[in-house]
Amino acid sequence: MSDDKEKPSVSGTEDFPLADDGDDSLALSNGRTPKPAQPLPREEPPEDPEEKARLITQVLELQNTLDDLSSRVETVKEESLKLKAENQVLGQYIQNLMGSSSVFQSSQPKAPKQ
């Protein structure tokens, strides 16, 4: 049996402009040029001096809190690195002690001498 299925033709793509065709103008299928995107209209909050002062105070407090937390994170990172280094030193010390002590040597019974 032979497979006589037809492959889809790609010849229809000549109708579509490609990015490198050199035509810089954009046109919709109806011939119109699209309008550039416009930002959404902003709703201006009512000018309430007390509300504005409260918001400014809240923003400043949050900035201070963020600064405090950032410095705390840096301090904890430094402390963590110091502790990791100390743990490595202590681990090496314990390995050396265990290696030099007969108590921690292999627990397998020694083969009898013949």
TrEMBL record:
Report the family membership. Answer: Belongs to the SCOC family.
Q: What is its main location?
A: cytoplasm
Q: Does the keyword Coiled coil apply?
A: yes
Positions of the UniProt region annotated as Disordered: 1-52
| Tagged with keyword Amino-acid biosynthesis | no
InterPro entries hit by this protein: SCOC (IPR019357)
- Name the domain of life: Eukaryota
Q: What is the lineage of its organism?
A: Eukaryota, Metazoa, Ecdysozoa, Nematoda, Chromadorea
Query: Cellular component GO terms, alphabetically?
Result: cytosol; Golgi membrane; trans-Golgi network
Question: Which residue stretches, if any, does this entry annotate as coiled coil?
Answer: 52-86
Q: Where in the cell is it found?
A: Cytoplasm, Cytosol; Golgi apparatus membrane; Golgi apparatus, trans-Golgi network
Keywords per UniProt: Coiled coil, Cytoplasm, Golgi apparatus, Membrane
State what this protein does: Positive regulator of amino acid starvation-induced autophagy.
Q: Which residue ranges run through the membrane?
A: none
- The name on file for this protein is Short coiled-coil protein A
Gene3D superfamilies in alphabetical order:
1.20.5.170
Identify the species of origin.
Diploscapter pachys
Topology in the lipid bilayer is annotated as: Peripheral membrane protein
